[in-house]
């Protein structure tokens, strides 16, 4: 297949870079006089990468639908194929005679191995392969410590990154894309959409797609960024950007966010930009330690005496632990596919340290339920919470769910939103309902053990058990000395 000018077409293979703006995969296509075939391959569960969780599968379907609409406005469309990426690329190149493939590299090392094979095989067949680096601030291979190793501690990593980094110039979105004479066959985008009933509340909470994230960033910049430092830890306030799922699917470029906020807010944007640094840091950790998703970074944690108790795990997943801030977080996750970062830390600490359930079970649950699920971010943060990661919270820092609730949700607004059965309790009791008198419980219409569970563990006793377990594996004996 050639285009009207008789030239072989170019394939632009889209993956987690579902955007037109600031995407180098389009840069050559935009000025090209030949046809471009935008391709998405549904290789979910077929490649080296982990199969998508349910919430992410929904996001992907909606994001692809939005992206296809944008392409159609340019006279193009998305060609969707299902199968192993290597086979699908081979087949499309054979069908269309395409001589060039352009795509954005992943930083996930399991996918990177597959990518390297694809590049080598296609180049051997004479196909020109253009790869781009566009989804992170900095290439992990280029950002090393003085001795050439990977950074294991965030602050020096951030200082180096921030010192080196300048956002590259914006790559404008293509204004027009030349269509091939005949479009190759593919799946309809509808086939990748998830329409099950359970998705309805999540679909109400979010609008995936490039247009939507641009509006979100603008609103965040105008209404929230100036207060970000003070508000970012408060789940009862709308104090963060909620850009994470859009970033996970590359609907916006991280360079574009940086440039936009720095131009508008200068140094005031720094606390926020630092969070983007954490995103890069986790990706750098995964690039250096491909087992990050399941194996503790610190080897001694492999023998941690976790319980893997299914009943406790189930109560946690359902938001029925009897600790209101924990339950609110897990219910927010279930109903919206997202949870506030402070609460992710609280529920993570509770699972691993109060319930002694392995962090991997929490990571798997988040993977399935988060719309922003991302292997490096999820695993990096779970390892941080569990105390076994490269730059981990010290294992002896066991979050107290009552004090955390009172500090970061002082009026109980967040708990009231997600645990409505406690809604009539006064603020002083909402994070510790078991201390309410029977009159207070009756006045609030709460019956512990019936309308809301008793705590499934006693936090003080659980904390001691966790510290004893950490001591048994020899974690930080020094720190435990009186
Ligand atoms: P904002 O506060 O507005 O931050 C802006 C951006 O900075 C975020 O969108 C995100 O890209 C980045 N960022 C912020 N906090 C972190 C952080 N702690 N680590 C890495 N990047 C950060 N984030 C994911 O994107 N995917 C995950 O699968 C994921 N799993 C997590 C699991 C646990 C146990 C914990 C504690 C955190 C996890 N996070 C994950 C990080 C963080 O909670 C979310 O990125 C954040 O809550 C997203 O909300 P936001 O966009 O409003 O954040």
Brief summary:
The chain has 482 residues and is mainly alpha-helical. It has helices at residues 27-30, 54-73, 85-96, 109-124, 154-164, 200-205, 210-223, 228-231, 244-248, 254-265, 270-288, 310-318, 324-336, 341-354, 359-369, 375-386, 401-408, 413-418, 427-430, 438-443, 459-472, 477-480; strands at 10-14, 36-42, 79-82, 100-104, 128-132. Helices cover 46% and strands 5% of the residues.
Describe the protein in words.
It contains 22 helices and five strands. Strands 3-2-1-4-5 form a five-stranded parallel β-sheet, with helices on one face. Mean pLDDT is 94; it is low at 477-482. With 482 residues, it is mainly α. Helix 1 (27-30) links the parallel strand 1 (10-14) and strand 2. The protein is globular. The protein binds flavin-adenine dinucleotide. Flavin-adenine dinucleotide is lined by residues 232, 240-244, 247-248, 275-276, 278-279, 282, 341, 344-345, 348, 366, 370, 372-374, 377-378, 381-382, 385.
Keywords:
482 residues, mainly alpha, five-stranded parallel beta sheet, 46% helix, disordered C terminus, binds flavin-adenine dinucleotide
The largest β sheet comes out as: 5 strands, parallel
Binned, the helix content reads 40-55%
The dominant shape is globular
What small molecules does the structure contain?
A: flavin-adenine dinucleotide
Tell me the number of helical segments per DSSP (H or I, 4 or more residues long). Answer: 22
Task: Give a count of the beta strands, DSSP E runs of length 2 or more.
Answer: 5
Average pLDDT: 94
Low-confidence stretches: 477-482
Strand order, largest beta sheet: 3-2-1-4-5
Beta strand %? 5-15%
Radius of gyration: 24 Å
Element order, helices and strands? EHEHEHEHEHHHHHHHHHHHHHHHHHH
How many angstroms does the end-to-end distance come to? 76 Å
Structural class: mainly alpha
């Amino acid at each position: 297949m050639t285009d009207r000018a008789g030239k072989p077409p170019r394939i632009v293979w889209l993956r987690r870079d579902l955007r037109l703006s600031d995407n180098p995969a389009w840069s050559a296509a935009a000025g090209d006089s030949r046809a471009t075939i935008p391709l998405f391959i549904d290789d979910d569960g077929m490649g080296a990468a982990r199969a998508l969780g349910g919430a992410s599968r929904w996001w992907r379907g909606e994001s692809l639908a939005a992206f296809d609409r944008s392409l159609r406005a340019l006279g193009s469309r998305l060609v969707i194929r299902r199968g192993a990426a290597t086979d699908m690329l081979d087949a499309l190149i054979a069908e269309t005679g395409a001589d060039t493939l352009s795509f954005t590299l992943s930083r996930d090392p399991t996918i990177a191995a597959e990518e390297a094979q694809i590049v080598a095989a296609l180049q051997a067949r004479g196909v020109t392969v253009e790869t781009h680096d566009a989804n992170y601030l900095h290439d992990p291979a280029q950002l090393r410590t003085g001795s050439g190793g990977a950074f294991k501690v965030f602050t020096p990593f951030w200082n180096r990154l921030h010192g080196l980094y300048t956002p590259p110039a914006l790559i404008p979105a293509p204004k027009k894309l030349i269509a091939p004479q005949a479009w190759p066959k593919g799946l309809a985008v509808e086939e990748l959409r998830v329409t099950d009933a359970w998705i309805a509340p999540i679909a109400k909470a979010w609008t995936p797609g490039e247009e939507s994230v641009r509006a979100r960033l603008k609103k965040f910049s105008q209404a929230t960024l100036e207060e970000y430092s003070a508000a970012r830890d408060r789940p009862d306030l709308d104090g963060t950007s909620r850009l994470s799922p859009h970033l996970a699917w590359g609907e916006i470029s991280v360079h574009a966010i940086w440039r936009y906020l720095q131009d508008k807010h200068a140094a005031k944007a720094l606390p926020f930009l630092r969070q983007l640094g954490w995103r890069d840091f986790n990706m750098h950790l995964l690039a250096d330690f491909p087992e990050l998703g399941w194996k503790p970074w610190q080897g001694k944690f492999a023998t941690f005496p976790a319980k893997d108790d299914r009943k406790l795990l189930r109560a946690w997943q359902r938001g029925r632990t009897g600790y209101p801030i924990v339950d609110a977080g897990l219910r927010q996750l279930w109903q919206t596919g997202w949870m506030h970062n402070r609460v992710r830390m609280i529920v993570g600490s509770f699972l691993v340290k109060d319930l002694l359930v392995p962090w991997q079970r929490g990571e798997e649950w988040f993977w399935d339920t988060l719309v922003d699920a991302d292997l490096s971010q999820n695993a990096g943060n779970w390892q941080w919470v569990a105390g076994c990661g490269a730059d981990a919270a010290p294992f002896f820092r066991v979050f107290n769910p009552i004090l955390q609730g009172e500090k970061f949700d002082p009026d109980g607004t967040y708990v009231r939103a997600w645990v409505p059965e406690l809604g009539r309790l006064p603020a002083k009791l909402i994070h510790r309902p078991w201390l309410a008198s029977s009159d207070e419980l009756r006045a609030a219409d709460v019956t512990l053990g019936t309308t809301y569970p008793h705590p499934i563990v006693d936090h003080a006793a659980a904390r001691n058990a966790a510290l004893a377990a950490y001591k048994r594996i020899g974690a930080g004996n020094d720190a435990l000395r009186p």
